[in-house]
Every structure is written in structure tokens, then in C-alpha cells.
Design goal:
About 0% of the residues lie in helices and about 45% in strands. The protein has about 425 residues and is mainly beta. The chain has a single domain, classed as Methylamine Dehydrogenase, Chain H, CATH 2.130.10.10. The strands form 8 sheets. It has a 4-stranded antiparallel beta sheet, with no helix packed on it. The protein has a 4-stranded antiparallel beta sheet with strand order 4-5-6-7, with no helix packed on it. Strands 8-9-10-11 form a 4-stranded antiparallel beta sheet. Strand 22 and strand 23 form a beta hairpin.
């Protein structure tokens, strides 16, 4: 049974551990691993991930139930349930985003377990709708679109599409007033992208900019009045390093920096151990950009902590957690400050086979308000917790399900400001 939290004690960091294959979610105290709550028969959309909302809340999508879940990680301390609210949405969920206030959300649909896109449904959500029309579904282009939600007097839902590459802007209010039966929604603005391979989205609420990663660079548009205006793209090349492209893009709200991992090498998935990987960063206020070598293998998602950026690298010669120092001082540049070994996974990707399908993976999580990093060990039901400031492992937590496919993690600290990155991760 969970131990009560003293009313005078500061709430500890908490870790949401989702086993989306087994359908279980745990809420654990850090670093001791005390379980505060559990939810069964909930299958997280691993691709859409967790989305931080204001008020220390977290959103995610239950793929099997077709519901947006609003989670309250500190609610159990006050006798509230972990799942605060449930809102019906279209699935399979591909991406999830919110406006800066955390009231207006959007969920796009993707492939799921299908060979080709088949739905093209977009769900617009207003968590404070005065007339009870909380969620509305409309139909648009099929595909696997990214999404961002821009605030302001006329909030916009911006979809990033591939094949052909373009950005589509919808007024959130118009989506919410759509008729029943999933009518087709026409965008109020179309912006063509030069690439048909977009993958990775970010939104800076302070400037109203939207960023979309593609092979030719990071494409930018900015909120201008009731519409969008384009800006020159950001190149992947920096610090004398060129080639490759980023497949993931994330806003670091602590240092107001964009982060990605630039992958280079063969397009053959079986040769993934040979892929090169660089950490790419762009400081939004100074326009400084840089790249740092991470090493060969599979590197994808990253996590943002108070003073570090964390990447996991999978390779047949050994996996590791790579920590980058990320100073806030003007002119200071990130650097690789630690490489911490991770225990091998049974069922890990092998050379000659795909690094994604039918193999174990790792999830990584951190909070911009703390120095802890959590890394899962897929197939083993373990989560390794590291102290980034000490550059050392603190503990290993065991959960009752295997965390096949790596599971998914979210690390929460009270008032950590994580909602300043309003895209699901």
C-alpha cells in the first residue's frame, strides 16, 4: 500500500511508467520507487506520448479505449484519483499537443497497426467548453501528421503533413463548431514544404513560432496576426559537421533551445549499428547553433532536465546514457559531460535486423525542474534512475510488467514548467 505523504513535506519527483503492451500504468515516487497509484487496462499511445499541462497535470491517449486521459500525478496525495478526466478522441493517435494555457488540445491519427493510413481524423478538444461540446472530430488528409496548437485571440491548430509536405492551419474555434459525423475540415492556410519527409515538431509559445524537421532543415513559421508567415529554415550543418537530418525535435524550456538528434548513414535499417548520431541544438534567442557527436547506433528521443540533456544510445557493443551539460549562461555551449553504461537487454536490436520492429527498446524521461533521469530496460520490467549532477546511477526500480517495447516514461516535478513545451513526448 502507498505510504501517506506528510502535509509539511515537499512533494517528491514522480515517475509515470506506462507499459502500453501490458496495459498498466504506475505512478512512483523518486528515487525510492514507492507506488502511489496504478491504473490497469490502459494502453498508452506510445507515439503520441505524454503531454505536460499547467497545474502539474499530464495528458496522454489510451489507444484501445479511444480516450484522452488527463492525469493528476499529485492528486493521490489529496485523495484524488490519478485519472482526473476522460475525453473521447479518434485513434490510433499519432501526435498530441496543447495551446500554452493547456485548455485547447488536438490529437491526430496515424497508421496504428495498419500498413497504410486510413482515417485522416483530427480531434479538437476544449477542456473548458461552456456548452459541453468538449471534443469534436473532423476529417482531413490521411497520413501521420504532426500537430501544434497556437494560442491567442484566434487559436490555430497547425498540422505538419508529408507526401506532399505542407503545413495546414485550422482555427480551433471553427473545428469545435463543426457538424457531427466527422465532416471534412478545410484549412484556412496552406504552406508548402520543400520536402515530403517531415518528422519532428516543436512550438515556442513565447514567440508563436512552429518548427518542423525535414531533410532540408528545420522549417519555421511564425504567428502573425490571425495567420502564419514563413521564415528561413535552420540548417542541420553546424560546427563543421554536416550531413544527416533530425527525426525528432524538442523545445527545452529551461534554456529556450531546440534539440534534435541528427542521424547519418545508410538508409538500410539493417545497418543501424553504423548510423552516426549528433546532438543538434539551436538557441532561440541568440540564434546560436551547434552539433556534438554522440556515437554510432540508434539514438532517437531525448529528455530535458534542469541542467542536462539526456540521450540513450543503443549499440551491439554496449548501450549507454549520454549526458550533455546545458548551461544557461549566454554564450556558453553544450558539451558531452558523461557516458554512463546501461545493462544489456535480452531481445535488443541486432545488426542486420530492424531496430524498431519486434525488438526491445528504451524510454528516457526527465523534468526541467530536477536533476534525475529515468531510463527503461525493455523486456526486463526495470527503470534505472540516474542523478545527472552526480553523473551516477541512484537506483533500479522494478515494475510488475516487462515493459516490452521499452514502455514510456514521464518524470514530473511540482511547478517544473514542463508545460512550456506544449507538444506530447
Amino acid at each position: 500500500m502507498p505510504h501517506p505523504v506528510s502535509p509539511d513535506a515537499a512533494p517528491p519527483p514522480r515517475l509515470l511508467v506506462s507499459d502500453h503492451v501490458a496495459g498498466r500504468m504506475s505512478l512512483l515516487d523518486l528515487p525510492d520507487g514507492t507506488e502511489r497509484a496504478e491504473v490497469n487496462h490502459r494502453h498508452l499511445s506510445e507515439h503520441a506520448g505524454f503531454l505536460a499541462l499547467p497545474g502539474d497535470l499530464v495528458a496522454c491517449v489510451d489507444e484501445r479505449a479511444g480516450e484522452l486521459l488527463i492525469l493528476d500525478p499529485y492528486g493521490p496525495d489529496a485523495g484524488r484519483r490519478l485519472v482526473r478526466r476522460r475525453v473521447p478522441v479518434a485513434v490510433p493517435a499519432e501526435h498530441l499537443a496543447a495551446d500554452p494555457e493547456g485548455r485547447l488540445l488536438a490529437v491526430t491519427t496515424g497508421l496504428g497497426r495498419n500498413e497504410e493510413a486510413w482515417t485522416g481524423l483530427l480531434t479538437a478538444v476544449d477542456l473548458a467548453a461552456p456548452d459541453g461540446a468538449v471534443a469534436v472530430r473532423v476529417r482531413g488528409r490521411t497520413g501521420e501528421p504532426g500537430v501544434t496548437v497556437l494560442g491567442g485571440p484566434s487559436p490555430l491548430v497547425v498540422l505538419r503533413h508529408r507526401e506532399p509536405g505542407e503545413l495546414l492551419a485550422h482555427r480551433h474555434g471553427e473545428l469545435m463548431s463543426s457538424a457531427p459525423s466527422c465532416p471534412r475540415a478545410e484549412p484556412v492556410r496552406r504552406i508548402a514544404l520543400p520536402d515530403d519527409d517531415g518528422h519532428g515538431d516543436a512550438h515556442d509559445p513565447l514567440t508563436g513560432r512552429v518548427f518542423a524537421a525535414a531533410s532540408s532543415g528545420v522549417h519555421r513559421v511564425r504567428r502573425h496576426g490571425d495567420g502564419l508567415t514563413t521564415e528561413p529554415p535552420l540548417p542541420w550543418s553546424a560546427d563543421g559537421r554536416s550531413g544527416g537530418r533530425g527525426y525528432y525535435l524538442r523545445l527545452d524550456p529551461v534554456r529556450r533551445t531546440l534539440w534534435s538528434c541528427v542521424r547519418g548513414g545508410s538508409g538500410d535499417p539493417g545497418r543501424w549499428p553504423e548510423w552516426s548520431n549528433d546532438a543538434w541544438w539551436h538557441q532561440l534567442d541568440t540564434e546560436a547553433t551547434g552539433r556534438l557527436e554522440l556515437g554510432p547506433g540508434l539514438v532517437f528521443r531525448l529528455a530535458v532536465s534542469a541542467r542536462h540533456i539526456a540521450y540513450t544510445r543503443i549499440h551491439p557493443d554496449g548501450d549507454e546514457l549520454v549526458l550533455l551539460s546545458a548551461p544557461r549562461e549566454a554564450g556558453a555551449r553544450p558539451d558531452v559531460c558523461a557516458r554512463l553504461p546501461l545493462p544489456a537487454m535480452t531481445g535488443a536490436p541486432r545488426s542486420g535486423g530492424t531496430p524498431w520492429d519486434g525488438v526491445q527498446r528504451r524510454a528516457v524521461a526527465a523534468s526541467p525542474g530536477a536533476g534525475l533521469i529515468a531510463v527503461s530496460r525493455g523486456g526486463h520490467g526495470e527503470v534505472h534512475v540516474f542523478d545527472a549532477d552526480r553523473r551516477a546511477q541512484v537506483t533500479t526500480l522494478a515494475v510488475p510488467t516487462p515493459l516490452d517495447d521499452g514502455g514510456h516514461l514521464a518524470l514530473v516535478t511540482p511547478r517544473d514548467g514542463a508545460h512550456a513545451d506544449p507538444v506530447g513526448r
